[in-house]
User: What shape does this take?
Amino acid sequence: MMKIGIIGAGFMAAFHEKALRSVRNVELEGFYTPRGNDELAQVARKNKLGNAKMYKSVVELTKAVDVVCVVAPNFARLDTMREIAKGVEGGAKLKGIIVEKPLARNLKEADTLVRIAKALNVPTAYFENQLHMPSVVQSRLQLADVEKAMGPAHLARSAEEHAGPHKPWFWDPTTQGGGVCCDTGCHSIACGMYMLTPMGKPVDFLKPVSVSATMSLLKWGSKPWIDELKERGVDYAAKPAEDYSIVTLQLKNPETGQRSIVQATNSWIYDAPGLRLFMETFGPGYSYTVNSLQSPAGLFISDTAAAAVTDSELALEKSQASRGALVLQPNETDLYGYIAEWIDALDAFEQGKDALLNLEYGKLITMLIMSAYMSHEKGKTIDLTDPSVLTELEDYVPLIQQGKGNEVL
Ligand SMILES: NC(=O)c1ccc[n+]([C@@H]2O[C@H](COP(=O)([O-])OP(=O)(O)OC[C@H]3O[C@@H](n4cnc5c(N)ncnc54)[C@H](O)[C@@H]3O)[C@@H](O)[C@H]2O)c1
Assistant: This one.
C-alpha cells in the first residue's frame, strides 16, 4: 500500500483525488495547504481513500507518507520542494516525489528543483497527463506496426484551449510564469513531441533544433473583458500576459537525421463548449486524431429548464454554457490521463525508479517554453543547436513573466 500526501487541495488536487479512486493499493494519507481547509480531505474520506487528514506542515506530511505530490500554485514550487527536502533530511523515507506541470516558471527554478530532488536521491515523476491520455497511447500502439513499416511521424499538431483560468494567480504572469503558453503550452509541446517520438524510444529521444513562437493578447486585454478580470482581482492593464500562443518546434531524429515539426496552439479565448484537447499526428501514409470534446454522451437543457442547473462544470471541465446542446464527458480523469499517470508513477516508485516522465524531462519542457517566450520577444527563430543560446536560456526570465508584458504584447 502506497501512502500518498498531496500538497495543495484546489482544483487539480480534486482531480487527483478522483483519479486515485481508480488506482489500486493506494491510501490518501493527507493534504497540506497553508489555510488548512479540509473540504477535499472530507471528500477523500467519504470515498474511503484513507485517513486523508490535514497536516500542519509539508515536513510533517512528508514524514507520514511514501509519496508526496506537489499540486500547489507554480509560485510555491521552490519553497515546497525545500520543505520536502527538510522532511527527508529529518528522516522521511520517501519512495517518490511528484510535481505537477509546469515544473517551474523558468529554467533557473526548474534546475534548482531537479538538483534538490537529485540530492535527496528519491525517484521523481513530472505529471504531464496528456502523454498518458489513453486516446494518445492507444493510437500510438495501434499504429506501431504501421510506423515500423512506413517510418516515424513527421508532423504533430497539439492544442489545449479553453476560456481562461479559474484563479487570479494563474492570470498574474509573475505568479504563474506567463500566460497561456506557460500554463498549457507545456502540455501541447510535450504531447506533440511525444506523438512524434518513434515507438520504443525514450521521451527525450528527439533533439530540439529550433523554436519559433508568436504570442498575443487577443481578447482579455480589451473591454469589457479587461474590466471583468479587474473585478476578479486581475490587472491586465498593468501586467498583461498572452491569451494566445502558437509555437513551432523543429526536432531531429539523432539516428536518421529526419526532421519533424510540432505545432502547439494554446488559447484562453476558446469561446466554445469547454476545454478542448485536440491532437493530430501525421506520418507517411497514416495519421490519427484526438478531440476531447467528442463524447458518446450529450445533454440538452432548454431555456425553460436552465434555471435549475447549478454546476455545469460537473459535466465538462471549464464548461461555458448551462443550456442548449451540451457536451458531457463521463470520465474526465481517464480521458485526460490522470489515472494512467498515477499508475505509471506508483509502479515505477515501487521498483525504486523514476516515472516515464521525471523532473529532468520537466526541465526540458521548461527550456522549450522559455525558448518560445524568447522567440516571441526577439521576433526570431531560436536556434537550439547553438550552445550560446542554451547558456542564455539558463538565466532567462521572459518580460511577460517579469510583469512587463506591455512591452511585448
Ligand atoms: N494537469 C492539468 O491538467 C492541470 C490542470 C489544472 C492545474 N494544474 C496544475 O496544478 C497546480 C495547481 O493548480 P490548481 O488549479 O489546483 O490551483 P488552485 O488555486 O485551485 O489550488 C491550489 C491549492 O494550493 C494551495 N496552496 C496555495 N499556496 C500554497 C503553498 N504555498 N503551499 C502549498 N499549497 C498552497 C491552495 O490553498 C489550493 O488548495 C498548478 O501548478 C497547475 O499548473 C494542472
User: Anything to note?
Assistant: The longest strand covers residues 207-216. Residues 7-13, 33-35, 71-74, 76, 80, 100-101, 129, 167 surround nicotinamide-adenine-dinucleotide (CB under 6 Å).
